[in-house]
Amino acid sequence: xxxxxxxxxxxxxxxxxxFALQEADDTLVPSPFPEGFESGSFLSSLERRIDIESxxxxxxxxxxxEVWDSEPSKHVSGDWEAEGEGEIESxxxxxxxxxxxxxxxxxxxxxxxxxxxxxxxxxxGRDAVYRLAQVDVPIGVERYLVQFWPASG
Length: 153
What we know:
Blueprint: E1 4-14, E2 18-23, E3 43-46, E4 49-53, E5 59-68, E6 82-90, E7 94-99, E8 102-109, E9 115-124, H1 126-132, E10 139-150
């Protein structure tokens, strides 16, 4: 099992049921979010980008990003409603949280440049935020845990 190197907590402004984790230097991303976004899948890996489909239309989700030195345990306590894995290359060692309107200005620090990363993403609160977002703009109902580790081991 890997060792946790660092953790970040952040808010994500979800719009139109989606957001993305994308290489911070968008000039290095062939199709910046939301270009090519397709709904119907919890997560999709594109070149230097991971698209995430949310349970709610417009709301504020909480995201915890963890960076590990190798693959973390697959067993994490919580009431996870969705889970998926993908890969993302980050030449800068930094990922931007992107909304439909563009880069949010919030960044995940990976700590290594020019590395291919594995990502395991889990989400809870999806059913509740779907219902609540029909009548309000909920905050913190949907939560994400994103774990990154180097793909090379």
